[in-house]
Design goal:
With 416 residues, the chain is mainly alpha-helical. The chain has helices at 3-22, 35-53, 60-81, 95-118, 122-146, 153-160, 168-174, 185-203, 207-223, 227-245, 250-273, 287-290, 302-311, 329-359, 365-381, 393-406. It is globular, with a radius of gyration of 21 Å. The mean pLDDT is 86.
Length: 416
């Protein structure tokens, strides 16, 4: 290999690994600032400076997605400076937090497309990203399981919050759900879901390693009792594992299935052990119960939608937003960007699906399945919380999406 290309690939691999690892990092001594934010914004600033000094080639999808996201950022920023009249009764939210949520994805895209334009091999970068994600998810599952029997709270608090000394409310809200380093079950569920399909992509040639990784990830996803993992991650991940298993002998499939059922049994016991939290709660026909009040007769999202449509239907509340749980990606876009923001958000998702569809025949099957898997998981999770802009998750989601869909497609991009 050309020494210059090897050096570029090494640099890209390390930078992507750093960004992915930062998503799992603790809070910094600065109140409200995570390691993730410090690393992503610093790296994005360097990449932006490089783009100003050198020509950077972008794919059409990258241009369109970037412009649509920049439109959302502009609307949110203007709303922060010139906020609409708020008659909803909800208090305004933190401008810093709202702008961070909407800006971080574009910063991640900037990093990835700059590295790809510079000549870094995107297969190398994707494998680096998947490796960090799978290893981190497995370690987090072990930490989460250990926290069920060991007093780890004083250590884990550095990952949960750096502004409150009292963790009583946090523990009460979790109600026996073991999340490890991630302070929200929904976020943990999304990361485990992405890790599961990344493990199939990365380890599809090693039955032993894939079995171990998938089992650990399944344990983590179940003991955090996340509906994102139980309904979205296990569905998409099961499809990926099923496609992989079709090429393996029946005895291997039976062995992995038995191990998976055993792990599920242990996970179910751990999940229901504390404060009566049980997985059976989510397997009912009651929409209100299954969605934790997000949808149904007394939807928690309906008052938010009504408030936005009354006060500022086209542009939303902007960066000031409102202090209420925005447990849906489209509802969050409506709250901060109005109908224009929702349209831009929806078109962004459509662009990603379109990018997969157009290049699915030019890339290998494992790459194609990983691409649509990430899109399905991200959009499926967005039904329950803002998956594309949420803390920690946004970095992981957009790193994978950028590598898979926003960089130039090479023919038959199967890993060696």
């Amino acid at each position: 290999m050309d020494p210059r290309q090897a050096a570029l690939d090494k640099r890209g691999r390390l930078l992507i690994a750093l960004v992915m690892a930062a998503a799992w990092g603790p809070y910094t001594p600065i109140p409200g600032v995570r390691t993730e934010q410090a690393v992503v914004y610093a790296t994005a600033a360097l990449c932006a400076a490089y783009c100003l000094l050198h020509s950077v080639r972008l794919t059409k999808t990258a241009w369109l997605v970037g412009l649509l996201w920049l439109l959302q950022i502009t609307i949110v920023a203007i709303g922060g400076v010139l906020p609409p009249v708020n008659t909803s009764g909800y208090l305004p939210n933190s401008v810093f937090a709202t702008m961070d949520n909407i800006t971080l994805p574009l910063a991640v895209v900037c990093i990835v497309v700059t590295l790809a334009s510079k000549g870094c091999d995107r297969i190398v970068m994707l494998r680096s990203a998947c490796t960090v994600l799978v290893v981190a998810a497995c370690l987090n599952a072990l930490i989460a399981a250990a926290s069920a029997v060991l007093p780890l709270n004083e250590i884990l608090r550095y990952w949960w919050d750096n502004q409150s000394e009292d963790l009583g409310n946090f523990h009460e809200a979790l109600g026996g759900r073991y999340v490890g380093l991630i302070n929200m079950p929904a976020q943990a569920g999304l990361l485990y879901s992405l890790a599961l399909i990344a493990a199939v992509y990365l380890l599809h040639d090693s039955t032993k390693r894939l079995s171990i990784a998938a089992s650990l990830i399944a344990v983590g996803g179940v003991i955090c009792v996340s509906k994102v993992f139980l309904f979205v991650g296990m569905s998409v991940g099961g499809w990926h594992l099923g496609r992989w298993a079709l090429r393996r002998p029946v005895r291997i499939v039976v062995g992995i299935g038995a191990a998976g059922l055993a792990q599920l049994g242990v996970s179910t016991f751990l999940a229901g052990a504390a404060r009566g939290n049980s997985l059976s709660t989510y397997f009912t026909s009651d929409t209100q119960t299954v969605t934790a009040g997000r949808f149904g007769a007394t939807s928690s999202l309906a008052p938010v939608i009504d408030a936005v449509m009354h006060d500022s239907p086209w542009w939303g509340y902007g960066a000031r937003s409102i202090q209420v749980a925005l447990d849906n990606g489209w509802v969050e876009s409506l709250a901060v960007g109005g109908l224009v923001g929702v349209t831009a958000y929806t078109l962004t998702s459509a662009m990603l699906v379109g990018a997969w569809w157009l290049r699915r025949k030019d890339v290998g099957p494992t790459w194609s399945r990983l691409s649509i898997g990430v899109v399905l998981v991200a959009n499926g999770a967005a039904v329950g919380f803002p998956a594309m802009t949420s803390n920690r998750c946004a970095t992981v989601v957009w790193t994978l999406l950028s590598l898979l869909m926003l960089t130039p497609a090479a023919r038959r991009t199967e890993p060696a």
